[in-house]
Design brief:
4 domains; mainly alpha; two-stranded antiparallel sheet; two-stranded antiparallel ribbon
Length: about 425
């Protein structure tokens, strides 16, 4: 039998860990004299001033949520400014590599930390869920490295990159690893940018920025739905607007709540009774689920709807199809099916194929380009372009963006 005193060791470890974290809270504000941090600060005051101000403005909505998540894990409050350099505190931020949300979680990291990503929702965009996961992730990184600079570098580049740099550099000093250029450029700039933002957030007036006090995420109540709800119809039948529902439920990827499972929909607290009454007045849906379907050449939304005896409007709603005439062959859409119909629902993931004659090229987006036209021009398909660039059908491209394209060498000129 173990001595009685041994049971205090886990508690003692936790207390020591929390004390160590508290001691680092002021470290984030004591790095401004470093030349790397000063350079980052000057950049924020000049070329990236609008980016920082936009992040400060956006932060007022989510700061209380983020701070609560950090406090629950016993992490320094200063980490609440990390989403500013990640995403300018935008829940809709989406990188070309597939990172998403205010914390810019990659899909695999999000799944490791229990964030659901499927056709219906992307919980990386939910400030409550993603902040809890980010706090856990940051806490895990700090426990591993016992150093915030290395932990933050690993948050940006991944533990593998940081561990390789430490192994080759023979040091655990972040600044020395940067000096030796063993970390990629983005990671060498990442920690200084974070320290610079902490400095600005601590003294906004001194640097000519505005930081409003108060604000916070709107008060809400949870409406548990047991059938799919068209959010446009819900808004049309009540006095709340569609934008408010979107603001409260940023994880939703469709204007329809999930089919085949219950969903916890956030609604404004002041309008909960009204929305609840409207919900019970909505027509009873007879949909049991959805199934993936690959569009054939020449098919239209109307033809697919007729084939499966479902609403054309519902198919368009499910798949964010704004122009039925732009439906292209090969695209996988989800088609709803009625109760009583047996359909196997599969998680279908498109995996591009790399052949013996495949070559990757870079393409810079020009004004007027569409991914469908680019795919046709290079003899590939749109799904392959989306997959290898970490994009989705909802992603947007802008002139000047660079994307990767896989082409057959026989096609290259």
């Amino acid at each position: 039998m173990k001595p009685a005193g041994i049971q205090w060791l886990p508690l003692l470890f936790v207390l020591l860990f929390v004390h160590a974290l508290d001691a680092t809270a002021s470290v984030f504000e004591q790095q401004i004299d470093r030349p790397e941090v000063r350079n980052a600060l000057e950049r924020f005051l000049d070329r990236e001033r609008s980016f920082v101000q936009r992040g400060l403005d956006n932060s007022m909505l989510y700061l209380p949520v983020v701070r609560a998540a950090l406090a629950e894990e016993g992490l320094p409050e200063g980490l609440a400014w990390l989403p500013l350099i990640e995403s300018a505190y935008s829940v809709r931020a989406y990188s070309r590599t597939g990172a998403c949300g205010i914390w810019q979680f990659m899909p695999q990291t999000g799944k490791w930390y229990d964030l659901r990503i499927d056709f219906w929702v992307d919980e990386r965009r939910d400030p409550f869920k993603s902040s809890k996961s980010a706090a856990r992730h940051l806490g895990d990184l700090y426990r591993y490295y016992n150093n915030w600079e290395l932990a933050l570098a690993a948050y940006n580049a991944g533990m593998g990159s940081v561990n390789r740099a430490i192994r080759y550099g023979g040091t655990r000093n972040y600044w020395e690893l940067c000096r030796k250029k063993l970390l990629k450029r983005e990671t060498r700039q990442y920690v200084p940018r974070f320290y610079a933002v902490c400095e600005i957030a601590g003294h906004p007036d001194e640097y000519g920025f505005s930081l409003e006090e108060g604000g916070g995420f709107p008060d809400f109540e949870i409406l548990t739905t047991d059938r799919p709800v068209d959010l446009n119809e819900l808004a049309a039948r009540s006095t709340i607007d569609r934008e408010t529902i979107t603001l409260l439920n940023p994880e939703l990827r469709r204007t329809l709540t999930p089919i085949g499972r219950k969903y916890r929909l956030r609604v404004p607290a002041a309008y909960f009774a009204e929305v609840l009454a409207v919900y019970h007045e909505l027509p009873e849906g007879q949909l049991a689920g959805v199934s993936p379907y690959r569009v054939k050449s020449g098919e239209t939304v109307s033809e697919i709807a007729d084939r499966f005896s479902v609403s054309e409007h519902l198919i368009a709603l499910l798949n964010n199809i704004h122009d039925p005439k732009r439906l292209f062959a090969g695209r996988i859409i989800l088609v709803p099916f009625p109760e009583g119909v047996e359909v196997t629902i599969e998680e279908e993931t498109f995996l591009p194929k790399w052949g013996f004659n495949t070559q990757q090229i870079s393409y810079r987006i020009r004004r007027g380009d569409t991914l469908w036209e680019i795919a046709a021009r290079y003899g590939t398909d749109m799904e392959t372009i989306l997959a290898i660039n970490g994009m989705s059908f909802e992603s947007t491209i802008r002139p000047g963006d660079e994307i990767a394209i896989w082409v057959e060498t026989a096609f290259c000129r």
